[in-house]
């Protein structure tokens, strides 16, 4: 009888040890799950991931584009200021490019734009860019890109004329650090460019200055710049990007595409270019073509 009681107590003790070990193992298995859950919660509350532009949500991406240059400055445009969006208007980007083939002995052509306006038959002239802003046409050509001019919101409708007010044009020869001012026939260039603005849609204006066709040398060796310009406009542009003054335009329906050149009197003529063989003189601050 005493032996049975002994075995009975040993059995009960074994059951108690077994249950204690099981409880300990169960508790151990539960703790990693809680720790894992805590880690997941911590990850969920982490900083937001970068957006498609590379910036975290809530942070503003740096703006790029053009800024006004001081009068007489040869500085290139720096930053642009985005215009205020309007649901009742259309968005327009203006860009400058240069597609000359080659100009021997020229390192830079510093082209100053003081103002750009477009005309609406019912509302008159609308200013879309103010300067002065200086652009290196040679640099633009070598980069193969378009340079930012301005970005504005305009009332819907058809605009039928573009006016560019040009400041100084400075030429820097290769091997020289001193710019030489080129004579221009007129500081104003008017082109009957057509631009269509649609409510809520994007449009674009590309102004291509053909430097090789524009730059001439007078008989005394001084430079003369008679702008030859090609203007292309598009409506319903899919999108455009401006990064570090460089403009990329995607899509769009062509509206206008034409070239104009300025003659020695400052008049813009359709598809005009002064012959490279023409002999020019500057007499009394005016450009004269010498008969051959």
Name a few traits of the molecule.
292 residues, 2 domains, 8-stranded mixed beta sheet, 5-stranded antiparallel beta sheet, 3 helices
List the helices and strands and how they pair.
Blueprint: H1 2-44, E1 90-97, E2 106-120, E3 124-136, H2 137-143, E4 146-154, E5 157-159, E6 161-173, E7 180-182, E8 188-191, E9 195-197, E10 202-209, H3 211-214, E11 215-217, E12 223-225, E13 228-237, E14 239-243, E15 246-250, E16 253-262, E17 268-270, E18 279-283, E19 286-290
Parallel strand pairs: 1-10
Antiparallel strand pairs: 1-4, 2-3, 2-6, 4-15, 5-9, 6-7, 6-8, 10-13, 11-12, 13-16, 14-15, 16-17, 18-19
Protein described:
- By secondary structure, the protein is an alpha+beta fold.
- It folds into two domains: 1-38; 90-278.
- It has three helices and 19 strands.
- A hairpin with a 5-residue loop joins strand 11 (215-217) and strand 12 (223-225).
- The relative contact order is 0.14.
């Amino acid at each position: 009888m005493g032996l049975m009681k002994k075995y009975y107590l040993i059995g009960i003790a074994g059951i108690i040890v077994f249950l204690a070990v099981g409880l300990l193992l169960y508790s151990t298995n539960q703790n990693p799950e809680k720790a894992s859950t805590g880690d997941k919660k911590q990850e969920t509350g982490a900083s937001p991931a970068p957006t498609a532009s590379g910036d975290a949500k809530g942070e503003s991406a740096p703006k790029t584009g053009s800024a006004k240059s001081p009068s007489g400055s040869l500085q290139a445009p720096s930053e642009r200021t985005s215009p205020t969006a309007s649901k009742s208007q259309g968005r327009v980007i203006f860009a400058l490019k240069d597609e000359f083939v080659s100009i021997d002995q020229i390192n830079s052509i510093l082209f100053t734009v003081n103002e750009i306006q477009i005309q609406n038959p019912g509302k008159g002239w609308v200013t879309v860019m103010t300067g002065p802003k200086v652009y290196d046409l040679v640099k633009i050509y070598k980069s193969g890109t378009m340079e930012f001019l301005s970005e504005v919101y305009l009332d819907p409708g058809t605009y039928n004329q573009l006016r560019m007010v040009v400041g100084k044009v400075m030429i820097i020869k290769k091997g020289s650090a001193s710019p030489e001012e080129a004579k221009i026939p007129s500081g104003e260039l008017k082109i009957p460019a057509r631009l269509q603005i649609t409510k809520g849609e994007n449009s674009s204006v590309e102004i291509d200055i053909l430097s090789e066709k524009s730059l001439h040398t007078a008989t005394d060796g001084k430079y003369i710049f008679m702008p030859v310009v090609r203007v292309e406009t598009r409506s319903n542009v899919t999108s455009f990007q401006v990064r570090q003054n460089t403009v990329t335009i995607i899509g769009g329906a062509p509206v206008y595409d034409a070239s104009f050149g300025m003659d020695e009197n400052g008049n813009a003529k359709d598809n005009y270019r002064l012959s490279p063989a023409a002999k020019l003189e500057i007499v009394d601050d005016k450009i004269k073509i010498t008969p051959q």
